C-alpha cells in the first residue's frame, strides 16, 4: 500500500509512504493534490486472486516563492497489477476548497444509484413520469406526477381543473365545466336531474317545473299552454276552466259565475247577457235587479213561484218593486198585474183603473188572495204577451188563455191606447184563433155555449172589443164576445174581464156607462151573470 499526502502548510513537503505489496483481500489507492488547496481522494477496494498490483500516482508540489499558491507537478508513478476477479468496488470523490472551507460533494446513494432529479427527462426513484419540460398541460406535470383530474392543471381530456373538491362551483370534480344536465346542482340552477324529461319535477333547462313553462307536469298539471289567456281551454292554473277555480275563466262573465256552464252571477257582478245574472237582468255589463219575471225564469229555469224584486227600467230612475211571479205554468215568467175578486169586484169595463196609474191592495200581492188587486207591474212592466186565468167554480183550479201582443208594451198602455170598438170599425185588438180555442174562454170557468143567450154565429177574442155598430151593450176589456149575427153588429154576450151583455130590446144604456148585466171577471150571457175569481198576467 502507498499513501501520498501533500499539505498546503508545508508547500514544499510531500510525504510518500509506501507499504510493501502483499496478497491482501483488497487494494486501496488514495490521490491527494495540493496547490490550490484542493484535495482529491480516490479509493478502490477489491479482492484479487493472483498477480502483482500496480499503482500509479502523481504528486504536485508548489514552487517556492509562488505567492498565488500555484504548484508545479512532479510525477511519481507506482504501478501494480493484480490478476484475478475483483468484486465490491467503492469509489468516492471529494473536492475541498481550502480558502473558503466549502465542500462540494457528489455522493453515490446507498443503493448505488444517484438521487432522482425531476426534469432531467429520466424517470428516477419515486417519480411517476419525467418528460423534461415545464408544460403542465401534457400527461406529466409539475413534481413529475402523472396528470390527473384535481391536480390544478388542465390536462389532456379535461375541460377545466380547479384543483378543489367543491362539486358545485364552475368546475365539477370530474374536471368538466358546470353545466345543466350534469346532475350537480350549480349556482343559478333550481335543480339538475341529469335527464331531458320535461314532465318530471325538473326541466331540461334546470328550472323547476312550474305552471306556465309549457310542459305538463305529470300528476300535478292537467294542461300547460304557457299563456295567460283564461278564456281558452287551459287556464293559468294549468287546469281546464271550472266554476270553482277562483278565477274568471272559460266563458264566465265573472269569477266562477255566468256563462253557459256556471251558476248565474249575483247583483253587481259582471255579465254579458241577462242569463249571466241570477236576477235575469244585465245592464252596463253588471247584474242588476231583475227587469221581469221572464228574465228571472230565463236565468234560473228552476225558479219557484213567489215574490221577486223587479226593476223594470234597470239603471233608470224607477225604484225596484215586488212582483208575484208564476214560474211554473205556461212556460213560467209571468208577472201578476191584476187580481179579480170572485164577486163584488170593482174592475168593470169602464173602471178608471184600466186606463190610469193606480194600485189596489198592493201589499196583498198573492194570487190566491180573494180581494181585488192591481199592482205596479200593470203600470210599468213591459211585456210581449198577455194571459188571462179564471177559476173553475167546482174544481177551483185556474184555467188560462194567453196571446202574443203586437209590440212590447205595458198593460196600462195597452188598454189605454187600444181604441174601443169593433173589427168593422178597425178598432179594438183582435187575436186570431179557431172557434174551439175561443170556446175555452167559457170552459176554463166552468161554462159552455149552452149558457149563452143566443146560438152564436160570430165569435171574436181580443182587447177593448165593443159593438160600436149598434146600441147593443155587450163588450169586453179582454176576452170573448158572441153574437147570433155573422158580424159584431147587435153584439149579445161576453166572457172574460170587464165583460158585459145586452138584454133589453131598447138601447137603454148611455155610452160610457156600464150595463146592469156585467161582471169584472166571468161570463155575461144576456141577463145571466156568472162571476168568478181571476187574474191578468204579463210576460
From TrEMBL:
This is Fibrinogen-like YCDxxxxGGGW domain-containing protein. InterPro entries: Fibrinogen-like_C (IPR036056), Fibrinogen_a/b/g_C_dom (IPR002181), Myxo_disulph_rpt (IPR011936). It comes from Nannocystis radixulma. Residues 22-131 are annotated as: Disordered. Residues 22-115 have a biased composition (Low complexity). Residues 1-23 form the signal peptide. It comes from the Bacteria. The keyword Protein transport does not apply. Keywords: Disulfide bond, Repeat, Signal. Residues 284-350 form the Fibrinogen C-terminal domain.
Amino acid at each position: 500500500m502507498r499513501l501520498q499526502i501533500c499539505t498546503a502548510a508545508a508547500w514544499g513537503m510531500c510525504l510518500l509512504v509506501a507499504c510493501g505489496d502483499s496478497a491482501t483481500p483488497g487494494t486501496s489507492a488514495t490521490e491527494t493534490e495540493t496547490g490550490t488547496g484542493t484535495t482529491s481522494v480516490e479509493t478502490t477496494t477489491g479482492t484479487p486472486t493472483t498477480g502483482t498490483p500496480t499503482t500509479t500516482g502523481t504528486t504536485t508540489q508548489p514552487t517556492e516563492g509562488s505567492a498565488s499558491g500555484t504548484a508545479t507537478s512532479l510525477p511519481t508513478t507506482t504501478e501494480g497489477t493484480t490478476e484475478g476477479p475483483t468484486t465490491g468496488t467503492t469509489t468516492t470523490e471529494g473536492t475541498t476548497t481550502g480558502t473558503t472551507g466549502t465542500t462540494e460533494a457528489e455522493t453515490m446513494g446507498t443503493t448505488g444509484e444517484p438521487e432522482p432529479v425531476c426534469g432531467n427527462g429520466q424517470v428516477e426513484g419515486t417519480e411517476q413520469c419525467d418528460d423534461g419540460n415545464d408544460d403542465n398541460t401534457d400527461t406529466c406535470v409539475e413534481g413529475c406526477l402523472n396528470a390527473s383530474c384535481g391536480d390544478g392543471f388542465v390536462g389532456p381530456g379535461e375541460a377545466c381543473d380547479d384543483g378543489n373538491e367543491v362539486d358545485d362551483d364552475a368546475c365539477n370534480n370530474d374536471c368538466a365545466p358546470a353545466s345543466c344536465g350534469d346532475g350537480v346542482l350549480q349556482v343559478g340552477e333550481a335543480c339538475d336531474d341529469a335527464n331531458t324529461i320535461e314532465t318530471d319535477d325538473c326541466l331540461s333547462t334546470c328550472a323547476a317545473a312550474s305552471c306556465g313553462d309549457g310542459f305538463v307536469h305529470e300528476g300535478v298539471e292537467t294542461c300547460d299552454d304557457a299563456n295567460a289567456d283564461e278564456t281558452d281551454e287551459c287556464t293559468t292554473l294549468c287546469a281546464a276552466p271550472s266554476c270553482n277555480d277562483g278565477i274568471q275563466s272559460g266563458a264566465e262573465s265573472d269569477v266562477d259565475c255566468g256563462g253557459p256552464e256556471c251558476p248565474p252571477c249575483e247583483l253587481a257582478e259582471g255579465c254579458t247577457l241577462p242569463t249571466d245574472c241570477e236576477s235575469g237582468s244585465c245592464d252596463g255589463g253588471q247584474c242588476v235587479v231583475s227587469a221581469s219575471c221572464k228574465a228571472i225564469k230565463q236565468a234560473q229555469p228552476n225558479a219557484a213561484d213567489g215574490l221577486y224584486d223587479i226593476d223594470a227600467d234597470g239603471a233608470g230612475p224607477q225604484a225596484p218593486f215586488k212582483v208575484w211571479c208564476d214560474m211554473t205554468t205556461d212556460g213560467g215568467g209571468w208577472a201578476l198585474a191584476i187580481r179579480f175578486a170572485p164577486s163584488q169586484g170593482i174592475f168593470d169595463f169602464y173602471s178608471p183603473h184600466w186606463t190610469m196609474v193606480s194600485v189596489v191592495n198592493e201589499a196583498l200581492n198573492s194570487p190566491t188572495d180573494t180581494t181585488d188587486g192591481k199592482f205596479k207591474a200593470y203600470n210599468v212592466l213591459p211585456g210581449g204577451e198577455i194571459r188571462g186565468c179564471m177559476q173553475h167554480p167546482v174544481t177551483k183550479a185556474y184555467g188560462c188563455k194567453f196571446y202574443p201582443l203586437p209590440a212590447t208594451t205595458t198593460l196600462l198602455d195597452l188598454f189605454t191606447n187600444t181604441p174601443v170598438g169593433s173589427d168593422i170599425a178597425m178598432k179594438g185588438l183582435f187575436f186570431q184563433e179557431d172557434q174551439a180555442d175561443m170556446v175555452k174562454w167559457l170552459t176554463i170557468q166552468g161554462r159552455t155555449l149552452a149558457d149563452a143567450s143566443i146560438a152564436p154565429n160570430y165569435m171574436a177574442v181580443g182587447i177593448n172589443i165593443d159593438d160600436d155598430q149598434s146600441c147593443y151593450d155587450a163588450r169586453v176589456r179582454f176576452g170573448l164576445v158572441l153574437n147570433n149575427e155573422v158580424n159584431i153588429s147587435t153584439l149579445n154576450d161576453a166572457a172574460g174581464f170587464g165583460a158585459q151583455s145586452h138584454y133589453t130590446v131598447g138601447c137603454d144604456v148611455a155610452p160610457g156607462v156600464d150595463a146592469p148585466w156585467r161582471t169584472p171577471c166571468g161570463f155575461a150571457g144576456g141577463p145571466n151573470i156568472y162571476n168568478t175569481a181571476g187574474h191578468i198576467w204579463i210576460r
